Amino acid sequence: MSELDDLVAVMARLRGPGGCPWDAEQTHASLVPYVIEEAHELAEAIEAAEGADGDAHLREELGDVLLQVVFHADIARAEGRFDIDDVARTLAEKLRRRHPHVFADSAVDGVDEVVANWDAIKRAEKPERGSALDGIPVSLPALARAEKLLSRARRAGLEPAQPQGADASAPETEDALGRALLALVRGAADRGQDAERALRGATRALEAELRAQEHARAARHAEPQP
């Protein structure tokens, strides 16, 4: 038995008859806060990892994230829907499908083409997503969602207009950028402003602008050519 098989068996025992009452009563919905918390703790461990102690911390946090996957899979298994093997199989199939330059005869020229192919394959798999901007979780923190939106827009060839009076230049280093962002947040707080809410509002406005631009581009392409 592999260590992963042992983990799956431990979870089944915890949630089975005579196991842990708390584990047994959990649902997909009740575990959502833990998924989010563990993802953030993993990110912190990655950023702080250094030496043997850092490796131990990172290994532990990776295990906590894996626990969430195994937990959700066991809930589904108990309900007769799918199990951890189905989760692994679905992921492996997706990775093979989205890497034809590795698992098929497709050729790529650099990372940019890999990303472009991934996006094209993803759009073909999910035709219900009519926009390149679909699928970005609204629940993401404001800064993470803004970065994701801008990344999607860039890859889709969309060009957001520069807000009037805004300075697009950024400090040369991440350390300087962090201090600049912190200064903005502090200044906002001094004025009684909510920086998170402000960025969410600006991001919503940007998304509306980008979707309009995307719609206009699609309309132009759909027009009969002379």
From TrEMBL:
Pfam families: MazG. GO terms for molecular function: nucleoside triphosphate diphosphatase activity. Residues 26-103 form the NTP pyrophosphohydrolase MazG-like domain. It comes from the Bacteria. GO terms for biological process: dATP catabolic process; dGTP catabolic process; dTTP catabolic process; dUTP catabolic process; response to stress; TTP catabolic process; UTP catabolic process. InterPro entries: MazG-like_dom (IPR004518), NTP-PPase_MazG-like_N (IPR048015), NTP_PyrPHydrolase_MazG (IPR011551). PANTHER family: NUCLEOSIDE TRIPHOSPHATE PYROPHOSPHOHYDROLASE. This is Nucleoside triphosphate pyrophosphohydrolase. It comes from Agrococcus baldri.
